[in-house]
Amino acid sequence: MAKESLQSRLVNDIEVRKIRRILKKVNAQKDKMAALDDQQLQAKTVEFRQRIKQGESLNRLLPEAFAAMREADKRILGMFPFDTQVMGGIVLHQGNVAELKTGEGKTLTATLPLYLNALAGKGAILVTTNEYLSQRDFEELRPVYEWMGLTVALGVHDNSEEKLTAKEKRAIYSADIVYTTNAVLGFDYLIENLASSQEEKYLRREFNYCIVDECDQVLLDVAQMPLVIAGAPRVQSNLYGICDTFVTLLEKDKHYELDEEERNVWLTPTGIEKAQKYFKVANIFAPENGELIRHVTLALRVHNLFELGKDYVVQDDEIVLLDAKNGRLMKGNKLQSGLHQAIEAREHIKITPDMRAMASITYQNFFRMFNKLAGMTGTAKSAEQEFIDIYYMKVVQVPTNRPIQRIDLPDQVYITLPEKLVASFQLVKKLHQKGQPVLLITASVEISEIYSEMLLQEGIAHSVLNANNAAREAEIIKEAGQLGAVTVATTMAGRGTDIKLPKEVKKLGGLAVIGTEKLQSQREDLQLRGRAGRQGDPGLSQFFVSLEDEVVIKYGSKWIHEYYEEHRAFDWDEPRQLTKRKILKAIQGAQEACDSEGVKSRKSSLEFDESSQIQRRLVYRQRDALIEQAENLDFDIMGLIRQDIQEFLKNKPDAYEIERYIFDNLSYDFDINRLDKITVKDRAQVEAFLLQIAQEQLELKSQQLEDEVEVKNFYRLAILKAIDTCWVEEVDNLQQLRTVVDSRQIAQRNPIYEYHKEAIISYNKMRIDIRHLIVQNLLLSRVVYNPKKGNSIYFA
């Protein structure tokens, strides 16, 4: 481990030396740009764009472009990027992750590579973690971009209830630089690929350049769950309540077994027997009982893997999910595959419709579509290998502008949660008595409220920031550095917001960050410590840990659990601090195991999405061709119809089945007496007869439509509608399939292999369904003429 760390530092030093050489070239242009008047400096944008058109590369242009934008930042914003910020900008331009410590000015750093990459006219996007940061950065930096002759737009808007039109979104994404969030950008991509005409599309043809702020949170932490757009509801099940009642009768380890690491739960033979008696079925795993066992499994998962106040809260008789990393409310988000409805049943509130998944993509596959992707954060080096493996980005640690003065104290470890609470609270009181501001970070809403109660009992004024009080998030965090301030917040809250310290606070030792739990990775520990000691300010960080912390409970070794059971009795007045090296190492090992599990989960999410990604590319490419090249496409309509008829005839249908096929697929107005003229057992004759009916229907449609252009548009819409209907069904099937294959682990099967195998079968079936639906859309649709609007087509 030490060798790897040394090797990593050596590699980073080599990268930094290379970047310093480019920095020298930027600095060599400093005086030249400073000597220009405003008009001359602004004219540089036109000059740079012309040089790019003539073939000059962005790399060659970098020193001048960075120097010009740096001077513009100084004149318009009153801030001249430090050398370290220029270095960070170089890393970002190269398509890598710039590790810039908290307070080093990532917002200003991004102006340099955004300006350079926007000059090519292909667009540049800055992605933040929330709407507040996007809007803040957009408003702060808009003047300098526009002064330099670039257009800039904001992808998020205040009223989330009011949907933007395609025209408004097109105006946003056509800007040179766009500030938005990962969620808005991802959902815009999925929504656009549900468009049925060119007028409904708004994104650029290809994704050019993107910088992701707080990239470890967006590209790693959030990326464990795919983006999903839900649409039409399924038929509502009445099994949620019944199965919820049933699982309350079960005992863990007797009736079911639980694997918290894999987040999986299953019935034991005893549990299966109990279920069969309860539901009065002979075999609960019989095909006809598939929905029943699915609902039992959902109820088991909800009761054992989801916790009120930690994973979700109930507000106004509605389940609202909580962000696992920061405790923020995720209003409007729902768990898929029936999990959300199972939670509603558990909490005895009205069960909402279970919606079909219409479109889905993982963040990994989404962001990998950019020609060049970059990221910036304060903590990424420990996850460098994952960034390389998934996003092909190296992590470069950029030196700080001023030396870090923060004092990072070693963790204090206690046996029980109450002892840890008492010990950490004693430190809070001690710091508060001398006026030093305290930022107390908790891992859950409940713990934040316990600390709040303790502070109230001591008469200490404080602010609380959790899922129940997130409206003033940025303001609360911004004030956390004031004299005597005590702020209780859930992890990661207010990330991206600067905490500024008055002079008297700096004299007292700066902001004190107190972590109250061992977090899921060392990277998260560093993120919280980084809230103190920005830009060379003094600061203090201290973590308090107990053997009852979730990470230790889930990932700790067996002997540490046995030690806890032997020593769990405690005295409130005398917290017992553990200092044995073996125990400290065991807790560190638990954190490393947890972090490893997170990496494994993200890798699994990406592997599951590979089949979806291949299918998505094929379907979206076909849709785009239909939408963008409608007049030039050559449709082999009769070939499609012939294939569908031949598929039907494989099963040797009788006269009645042929009649049904005609009415269900070819024509509503068929004269049944015409069937007497053919020999049903003569397959070639039946095929020719069915093709003749189809040809008649197509000729009728052609006569009703005005010209060849309208006929081709009719074909295009019929095919597009069929693709969309079947693709929505396929996306939903793949979402359901992920849940189903997990249970195959019990039979010692590889769930990812099983998923890909079933996904191929599902895709081939979808292709047949699309062809069949195209035939129905072409032949059973109606053309209705309206004197004012012209022809309208109504599909069956």
TrEMBL record:
GO BP: any one term: protein targeting
Annotated GO MF terms: ATP binding; protein-exporting ATPase activity
Major subcellular site: membrane
Highest taxon of the lineage: Bacteria
Assembly with partners or alone: Monomer and homodimer. Part of the essential Sec protein translocation apparatus which comprises SecA, SecYEG and auxiliary proteins SecDF. Other proteins may also be involved.
Membership in a protein family: Belongs to the SecA family.
Protein's name according to its UniProt entry: Protein translocase subunit SecA
Organism per entry: Ligilactobacillus equi DPC 6820
